[in-house]
Amino acid sequence: MDKSGILIALFFVVGLGYVGYQTFAAPDPMGHSMTPPDLSDVEAGAPLANVSVPETFSEAALVGQNIFNLKCAVCHGENAAGQNGVAPPLVHPTYRPNHHSDMAFVSAAQNGVRAHHWDFGNMPAIEGVTEGDVKLVATYVRELQRENGIN
Asked: What stretches of 2-87 show up as alpha helix (H) in DSSP?
């Protein structure tokens, strides 16, 4: 067998090894496998998180709060506490920075997102928000999260 035949065979062996590893490896516990909580005892539209609000926000977070209140609060509730049957709380460990980056917020707002953690249905794209707007909203949400021990 010549060198090209060996390289092709090696390519397939490595590929099959990777597929086998992915098939039999334990699932990532930080992935999209969150079991949605039982919310049957929570009134429709009620907040899903008890959110402590910081005494002060940074200037960027204050701008983000205004954008959030105009574009996001109708679904995600006051102070990002969520609303049962409508949208999840963003002040929740699921949305911590090392699992959902600020760019995940941007992508969700600009493109919409398929439901994968909660049973509220898909999130549509949000009209009229820029990447900069969503980054300011993320700053606001991150400050709320830190106040509530989500880092």
From this structure: 3-24, 59-71, 73-76
